[in-house]
Each structure stands twice: as C-alpha cells, then as structure tokens.
C-alpha cells in the first residue's frame, strides 16, 4: 500500500543542498540523453524521493545507510541491511504512464553499482513537489 508524505521545508532545503552538490561536481557523469539529468527541478525531485525513502524505511524500523547525501559516485542510493537499493523518483503521472519501468540506462548504472533492487517513489505533478509517495520495492 502506498505511503504519502507532505514535503517539509527542512526536507526541501536538504534536497536543494544535495542537488547543488550533484550539479556542481564536474566529475559526475550526467546523461546527455536524459534532459532531466541537468535539470534543477528534476534533481530536487529525485533528492526528495531519496530523503523520504529513508524516512519510510526508518519509520519501519530498518537501519539505513545513505550514499546519496554525499553523492558518492559509484554508490547505490541507500543500503538496508547490506542490500544496495536504487531509489527511482518521478512524477506519479509519469510512473503510471511507464508502468513503473526502469529505463535501460538506469538499469545498467544500477547493475554497475551492485544494486539489489529498486524503491519506486512518486511525487505530485507540481513543480515544487508538495507530496512524495512511496510505492514499492522490486
């Protein structure tokens, strides 16, 4: 069953900090084929998904280690009990349109990072993301 979180000001500030770190790192590989890779709004959306994925896991008494906060290149987004997980965040309307498929480029990158699975996160369609919804792990 999906779980919704209202985005707090503190989470938004942290998501912007993470995004600025990602976009300022010249060694970071950002896909030329995905326009959202260099888009501030899309990157903030992704960081919010990662933050609330950690919140949801913590709310369910799971210990979470993060790779995304420091933007550790080559690291999965989160580690739960030794299982490396990639967080896939997108507008829920886009998720429904793609039937929660993982793009081939993202799949390859996740394999290279040793990902065990995915946690699918959706956001509302607003530009500034007011609601984050945790969907499921695959």
Which features characterize this protein?
138 residues; alpha+beta; six-stranded mixed beta sheet; 24% strand
Write a brief caption for the model.
This protein has 138 residues and is of the alpha+beta class. It has helices at residues 9-24, 40-59, 92-98, 104-112; strands spanning 3-6, 64-66, 78-80, 83-91, 117-123, 131-137. It contains four helices and six strands; from the N terminus they run βααβββααββ.
**Global outline:** globular
Distance between the termini: 14 Å
Q: Quick one: biggest sheet?
A: 6 strands, mixed
Strand-residue fraction?
15-25%
Radius of gyration: 14 Å
pLDDT averaged residue by residue: 82
The low-pLDDT segments are none
Number of strands: 6
Structure annotation, total helices? 4
The percent of residues in helical segments reads 25-40%
- Please state the structural category: alpha+beta
Order of helices and strands: EHHEEEHHEE
**Spatial order of the strands in the main sheet?**
1-6-5-4-3-2
């Amino acid at each position: 069953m999906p779980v919704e979180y209202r985005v707090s000001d503190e989470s938004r500030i942290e998501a912007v900090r993470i995004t600025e770190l990602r976009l300022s790192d010249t060694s970071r590989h950002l896909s030329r084929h995905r326009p959202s890779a260099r888009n501030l709004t899309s990157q903030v959306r992704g960081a919010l998904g990662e933050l609330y994925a950690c919140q949801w896991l913590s709310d369910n008494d799971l210990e979470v280690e993060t790779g995304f906060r420091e933007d550790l290149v080559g690291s999965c987004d989160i580690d739960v009990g030794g299982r490396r997980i990639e967080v896939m965040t997108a507008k829920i309307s886009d998720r429904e349109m793609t039937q929660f498929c993982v793009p081939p480029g993202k799949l390859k990158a996740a394999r290279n990072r040793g990902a065990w699975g995915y946690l699918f996160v959706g956001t509302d369609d607003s530009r500034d993301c007011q609601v984050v919804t945790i969907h499921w792990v695959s």
